[in-house]
Structure formats: C-alpha cells, structure tokens
Specification:
- It is a single chain.
- With 178 residues, this protein is an alpha+beta fold.
- 16% of the residues lie in helices and 33% in strands.
- It has 1 helix and 8 strands.
- The longest helix is centred in the last third of the chain and has 28 residues, at 150-177.
- The N and C termini lie far apart (72 Å).
C-alpha cells in the first residue's frame, strides 16, 4: 500500500518557518528534521499511512525548532539557520507538489514583518511542545495533552477589540457629519 500526502501549509518570517500538517486524528506521528533542511513526517489515520519528505530551501536549527501535536493538525515552528527570507519553501525550483499550500492565515510580506500585524504567531503556544527529533506516541483517544482555552480567549479578546474599533469609527463618522 502506498502512502498518501497530507495537506501541508506554510508561512515564514525571517527567523522561522511555520509548517502545519493538516491531518485530523493522526496516530503514530513521527517527525524528523535534519540541519541541512530536510523535513520528514509520517503518521496514520484510519490505518492509512501518510508521509511528507521534503528538502527545504536552506539550512535549519533543529535544536531551536518546535512541534505541537494537536487533535486537528500538527504545527511546526522551524528555526532558520540564518535570519533571512527564503525565495520559496523548497530547495528545488519549479512547481511545488500539490499537497503544499501557502498558509494565508499566517502569511505576511517581508516588508511588513517589523510592523505589528493583527496576528502574531511568534507567541504560538508550544507549552506541550516535543523535541522534533523524538518519536511521538499519541495512540488512543487521549492525546496526553490538556486542551487550552487560550486560543478561544484570544479570539474573544480580538472580537472585543474589533468591536471597540468599529464603535470608534462610527463615532468619528458621526462627528464628521456634524
């Protein structure tokens, strides 16, 4: 039986690369990063094997990279060996594999990196992070991780902040009419 490829989304900053493997309810997750820039992932879902083996554009710092295995996806924050923007995700030029997609939710342009955007993924919760060169055993229904309300609280705070901004804009518009 051949392996399938899960969808992998990516975004970058000058110091980090963000990869998100979208594979809900993954079991037997294995992760391996190599300093030369090789990213390897394997897991099973419903007894079907999935894998990704790609050569990244440049070298990475394995020891400074983190992984967070969640119920819906596996998120990676991979430290780049050099602080610079990569021209693309993969070392080889040409059309990337169909399972690789840009993560527009995390994407910012290089010139916007120093500006504070509405979303800051540098503080992504990796409190349950595992070393990326370790074999992960997450079999069964209990993934051994407490689910956090941090993300939910973050959305609530953002919604409240957006509502306040809308009210300020509406008040400004009223003043402008008068």
């Amino acid at each position: 039986m051949s392996c399938r490829h899960p969808t992998v989304k990516w975004a970058q900053r000058s110091e980090k690369l963000y990869l998100t493997v979208e594979l809900p309810d993954a079991k037997d997750v294995k992760v391996k990063l190599e300093p030369e820039g090789r990213f390897m992932f394997s897991a099973t879902k419903d007894d079907v094997p999935y894998e990704v083996d790609i050569e990244l554009f440049d070298k990475i710092k394995v020891e400074d990279s983190e992984v967070n295995v969640g119920v819906r996806n596996i998120a990676y924050a991979i430290a780049k060996a050099e602080k610079k923007w990569w021209a693309r995700l993969l070392k080889n030029e040409g059309k990337p594999p169909i399972f690789l997609k840009v993560d527009w939710d995390k994407w910012i342009d290089e010139e916007d990196e120093n500006e504070k955007s509405g979303m800051d993924f540098d503080d992504m919760d990796f409190s349950h992070a595992l070393h990326t060169n370790a074999k992960l055993d997450i079999g069964g229904d209990d993934f051994g991780m407490d689910e956090s309300n941090d993300e939910e609280e973050g959305f609530e705070a953002k919604e409240e902040e957006d509502k306040e901004k809308e009210e300020q804009v509406a008040a400004f518009a009223e003043d402008a009419k008068a």
